[in-house]
Each structure stands twice: as C-alpha cells, then as structure tokens.
Specification:
- It contains one helix and seven strands, in the order E-E-H-E-E-E-E-E.
- It has a three-stranded antiparallel sheet with strand order 3-7-6.
- By secondary structure, the chain is mostly beta strands.
C-alpha cells in the first residue's frame, strides 16, 4: 500500500499532508483533521488513470464536505486508487 498526500502550494513551495490510509481504504472517504484544512488543499490525480495522462487537481473545498464531526471533515474519494498521482518523499 502506498501513501497518498494532499497538497497545498504556499509561497514557492508545496506542503504535503498524509491522508489517513486506513480510513480511506475502509470507507472510501478522505478523513481530514479540521486543523489541517485550508483553502487551496488538493489531491493530484490522473483523470483516466494512465501514466501519460495530465495531472488534475481534486480541490477539497467546503462544498465537498460530506460530513463533519467535532474533529474531522470527511470528503468523498471519487476515483480509483491507481488514479492518484505518486508523490516523491
């Protein structure tokens, strides 16, 4: 199992946030702690899953929150796992 990271571009650098992989695979949803959320957060993916496909951004915006509780926001994961762009360490 490889790790997936959300990204946010800030002042000439890209910050990565590790996705809770156990929750993702069990529920097919991204569970994000509220303190990590900010506008501009995205998950890079390839629309057709092929290696030569252009990378697109799945923006995690407030309107895409499926549910929330005291500590987390939950977002749908609307594509196949192999479509997520690999992230260098």
């Amino acid at each position: 199992m490889r790790a997936y990271y959300l990204r946010i571009d800030e002042q000439n650098r890209t910050r990565k946030i590790l996705i809770d992989m156990a929750y993702l695979f069990k529920h097919k949803m991204i569970r994000l702690p509220k303190y990590y959320y900010q506008e501009g957060l995205y998950l890079p993916y390839k629309s057709n899953g092929k290696s030569d496909a252009p990378v697109e951004r799945y923006e995690l915006t407030k309107d895409k929150i499926v549910k929330e509780d005291e500590h987390f926001y939950y977002f749908k994961f609307p594509f196949k796992y192999e479509q997520v762009e690999e992230t260098a360490g």
